[in-house]
Structure formats: C-alpha cells, structure tokens
Amino acid sequence: MSKKATDKEKEALEKYLLQFLNIEKQFPLLPGIENREAIASLMGLEVEELSKLRNHFTDSAKDAALELLKEDDVTDWIDALPFGPNDTIVAFGDSATDDLQGWFEIFKHILEISVEGANFQFINAGVTNNTTSEALRRMHRDVLSYEPDWVIVNLGTFDTIRPSFMPKRTLMPLSETWENLATIGDAIETVTENPPVWIAPQPVIPGLLDEMELFDFEIKEQDLSKVRQIIMGKKGYIVDPLGKRMGSPPEAWYYLNDGVNPSLSGHVNTVRELIKTLATAEERDGGTMTAMDLGSD
C-alpha cells in the first residue's frame, strides 16, 4: 500500500521541495519515468495533486513574465535580442535553472509572448544541486545532442559547498571548477557559432542557510567570488559578473527560506539582467562586453 503525503508534507512540497523535484530529468533512463502516476506516487501524491502543484509554479512563472513585460526597458531590450526566429535555446544549470518557476521558465514565457512569429525550442537542462563536474558528465545528452543555437550556463554555486564534516575545503577545488567551465565553453563551440551566455552565481545569505535543516553545509561569499572571477574571464556574454542582482548586500526578499535558491522575485532580477546583457552587449577582443562594461548599475 502506497503512503500518501500528510498535510504537513504537502505543505513542504508546495512551499519548497516540489519545484526542484523534477525526477524525470534526474533519472531520464529509469523504466517507467514517463508514467505520471508512478512519479506522483513517489511523492505521496495523486496525479491530479501533482499536476495542480506543478501548474501553480508554471502559472507563477508566466505571471512574472507578464509583469516584466510592463517595464519599458525590458520591452525595448527584447527588440534587440540576438536570437533567430527558429533558434534552439538551452539553459544548462543547477537548482536555479531546474526550478519550475525559475529564471529560464520566466525567460521562456517572455519570448513566447513577445516575439511575434518566432518558433523557439526551449530546453531546460538544469538539474538541482549539480556541480560543474556533474553537469559536464551529462552535457552531451542534455545539451549538445540538441545542437542548440544558444546555450546559457548558470553553474558554480554547488562547487563551493563546504561540508560540515570538512569545513576547511570546498566540495570542488577551484582548479577543477576552472577546468570544467573551460571544457563546457569549448564544447558549446562545437555545436554553435554563437557565444556562450554565462550567468554568474548570486551570493547566498548565510543566516538563512544555517537555519535550513535539509542542508548540512555552508557556502561562503569568498568562494563564490572566485567562481565569478573565472566566469568574468570567459568568452561570451557575462550576466551580472559581480553578483549584485539580488541587492548589495543581498536582500532576503529575493531568496527562498534556504538563503541559496532565488525566490520568484529573485528570478525576475536574473531575467532582467539576462535580457539587458544580451541586448546591450558589444563585441570586444577576447569576448563580449558585459552590462558592467557599458557603465550600467
């Protein structure tokens, strides 16, 4: 007899867990992975309950897109985006990308609503909690196999985890993060002439992270800053290279209660910076200018 989720468990799913429990992407080769009844049962839900909860996040992302489209700057920037009408756009990332109401889902809705006559294909290749090594391991299947025209990379946060049992080191050495990101950039060049788009990791709020029972690690700004420095040296579009999009210092309003993953409002900030950078960047030797280079705030 299958165990059904309690009201408390359903509340946890709705308020935090479910938006990252995209099991179909984490285990794509598992027999029966397309059986929605089986997926719902794993979470202790009925199929209708799972669909309702997931649709809630989809609707939230679309509503956020509609609100962004009320901003004059955003609509002006959309007209200057470098995409072709039939482009395939892949987002390659971790939890912030995998999020059912995350930045890529909002970005997708914006383009679908505002770009008349376009026939984009959107591939969300985000997997929750992925390090750059884990992402690189699945890159051919989840990214390159689609022969995308554009790849937007949002990785690096979970490389900087310092486990509670070994707080003096990060989960991934910085040299390995550098090598992985370099390899990801090289791999993108094998499938498209368009430059990669790199979204730098946002900071975290340590106080909130410390209170999160599900996590047994810490993330330090000094480690995230080093990852951003690697990304700043990349060829391509660099979005928010200093990690200021959640405020300086970062504001709790833009995060979920874990202090790591962005809230819906935080994701909106990422989308705004992404569109701005893609629309206003100019080519230079060795890469593409960032919004910072152009003198923006």
What descriptors fit this protein?
alpha/beta; two-stranded antiparallel ribbon; 297 residues; 11% strand; Rossmann fold; five-stranded parallel sheet
Written overview of the protein:
The protein has one domain (73-288): 3-Layer(aba) Sandwich (Rossmann fold), CATH 3.40.50.1110. 43% of the residues lie in helices and 11% in strands. The chain contains 13 helices and nine strands. β8 (283-284) and β9 (287-288) form a beta hairpin. α4 packs across α7 (103-114), α5 packs across α13 (264-280) and α10 runs parallel beside α12. The model is unreliable at 293-297 (pLDDT under 50).
Kindly summarize this structure in a few lines.
The chain has about 300 residues and is α/β, with parallel strands linked by helices.
Overall radius of gyration: 19 Å
Number of domains: 1
Amount of helix: 40-55%
What would you give as the CATH superfamily? SGNH hydrolase
Structural class: alpha/beta
Shape: globular
CATH topology value: Rossmann fold
What is the H-and-E element order? Answer: HHHHHEHHEHHEEHEHEHEHEE
Uncertain segments? 293-297
Mean pLDDT: 90
